[in-house]
Design brief:
Length: about 400
């Protein structure tokens, strides 16, 4: 059975889908106190809307060749913002947005250089390469870190990697045979591209809305801090406390262990039973960690469901035993009955070197944080970073 698609109808439907999804996502961003990733993704949809409007204006007015420059830049910015937003969700520092801005501007300049004679495909080569790279980066980023640990990001990663592969092949065909070849027109022309755009738009809107809703639910979990936590923060904070322990312990061959503890099922509790239940469970889990970590340890709450434990240890002490005791504590009968959901935790451990107290607590905390992300992806309950090269041992 052959199905014929009318080009104008497909283009109109594509534009309608992008605009409706974009308006909905942006409006939802404006009415909620959204985090950085959500705002960047909203910018991606705004760029996508600018792209379809520009291309429609170019189609209606052939003399407005500059609209192609705006459309190409908007399309590149859309893919770039997807990548930057995913990195922001995973709390990855860096100035990759500068690179995205430069490539976006270059995509517009490429069209301007060709001028009115460039036609529909002016600057297309650079645009194809940029979209393939940014979509691929966003897809890979969606499979790592906090996004990789969230099953709702899998569909987004798949469509982004599909888009990257599509534009990679499209780029090769564009430079080898040109856009007028039968293969390019049939398999990689406007109609096929429109279906790719619609798929990425719809799946992206759903996945990213769920991802930021999960974050919003956890932001809604608030737990009153214990007096000792407030006092600890008042005297200089966790890093100052850990730095002091490292310096004083180095003369006795003692170091510290930093444990980054993540409560894996907190998001599921918040989704199934609401913020109040998640608040109560978060409090119970935190108390369990306090009860099962070594005496005189410092336990600080980073965000709800995320704890940093700092404890002084003797040289040769097995840090895995400390982490295993915390994990096992969540399996106590009283904990297992909370909300009908079995509580689980993932722990990343970083150990200091007593001979190098100047290493600094910030370095150890960062190492523990990256190790727990690695453990989540690996599916292990405890992973220990062995040295500053982030070599790990799963258990």
């Amino acid at each position: 059975m052959n199905i014929e698609f009318d080009l104008q109808s497909v283009v109109f439907v594509t534009a309608l889908v992008v605009v409706v999804a974009g308006v909905t996502f942006i409006a939802d961003t404006l009415v909620r106190r959204d985090e950085v990733a959500g705002r960047i993704w909203a910018l991606a949809y705004l760029s996508g809307m600018l792209t379809v409007v520009s291309y429609l204006f170019w189609a209606a007015n052939g003399d407005a060749w500059w609209a192609v420059a705006v459309g190409n830049a908007g399309y590149v910015a859309t893919a770039g913002c997807m990548w930057v937003g995913a990195r922001a969700y995973n709390n990855r520092p860096g100035f990759v947005w500068v690179f995205v801005v430069l490539i976006t501007v270059a995509s517009a300049i490429a069209v301007i250089i060709e001028g009115p004679s460039g036609g529909d495909w002016a600057g297309a080569g650079l645009m194809f390469i940029a979209i393939a790279a940014f979509a691929g980066g966003a897809g890979v980023e969606s499979l790592t870190g906090s996004m990789g640990a969230n099953p709702n990001a899998r569909a987004l990663a798949i469509v982004l990697l599909l888009q990257s592969a599509y534009y990679s092949v499209r780029t090769v065909l564009f430079f080898t045979g040109g856009p007028d070849t039968q293969l390019f027109q049939t398999g990689f022309g406007t109609i096929t591209t429109s279906f790719i755009v619609v798929t990425v738009t719809i799946v992206g809107a759903i996945s990213m809305s769920v991802l930021r809703a999960d974050r919003a639910r956890l932001r809604g979990v608030r737990r009153q801090r214990r007096p000792e936590e407030i006092s600890g923060l008042a005297i200089g904070g966790l890093e100052a406390l850990a730095d002091g322990w490292m310096k004083r312990g180095s003369g006795y061959g003692r170091g510290i262990a930093v444990l980054a503890v993540r409560f894996d099922t907190l998001s599921a509790v918040a989704t199934a039973f609401g913020r109040h239940a998640a608040d109560e469970m978060c409090t119970a889990w935190t108390e369990s960690v306090r009860a099962h970590c070594p005496p005189f340890s410092a336990v600080f709450e980073d965000v709800p469901g995320s704890l940093i434990v700092v404890t002084s240890i003797d040289q040769g002490t097995d840090a895995r035993t400390i982490a295993d005791r915390i994990v096992d504590g969540l399996l106590d009968p009283g904990m297992a009955d909370l909300g009908g959901i079995r509580p689980t935790a993932t722990i990343g451990v970083a150990l200091s070197d007593p001979a190098n107290p100047a290493e600094g607590a910030r370095t150890l905390i960062d190492r523990a944080e990256s190790t727990v992300q690695y453990a989540i992806v690996l599916g292990e309950s405890v992973v220990i970073a062995r040295d500053e090269r982030a070599d790990t041992s799963a258990g």
